[in-house]
Amino acid sequence: MPVSDEREDVLLLDVPSTGDYLSVLPTATAAVATRLGFSLDEIEDLRAAVNAAVALLIPAEPGRPRPFRRKSGDQPLHCRLAVGEETLQIALSRPKGEPLPDAGSYQWQVLRALTDEVDAHVEDSTTTITISQRRPATEADADTHRHQIY
């Protein structure tokens, strides 16, 4: 999905592929989605989708739960959050390594259930998962009033 022709709002993050740093990705996604007027439920769905994409991209280390440990020499995970006029696009990339899990895996099911569109591709030496989510039409249209604490 193209980013706005008027301006390009893009946040780029390179994060070490360890649990200590991977939590930055859903947090950054939530911050951007909040600014765009997504509802609290939509924000939590995006956080869960980013976590599922990370679990797909970071291969498990034998004997360790994924994605909390990495093998020495692992490359960082790249994240690109692009704000378009109608869409928030989150692209997560890693150097090509082990193939992604089967399309029927739990993480893929989560991604499909929580997002408007998800795509995965391998180009050159990089594997990328791209999540696209339609933005609320305006902040006034966002369903945030249901979640206010009184």
Automatic annotation (TrEMBL):
* Residue stretches of biased makeup (Basic and acidic residues): 136-150
The annotated region (Disordered) lies at 125-150
Please list the residue ranges that the record marks as compositionally biased, kind Polar residues. Answer: 125-135
* Name this protein carries in UniProt: Anti-sigma regulatory factor
This protein's species is Glycomyces algeriensis
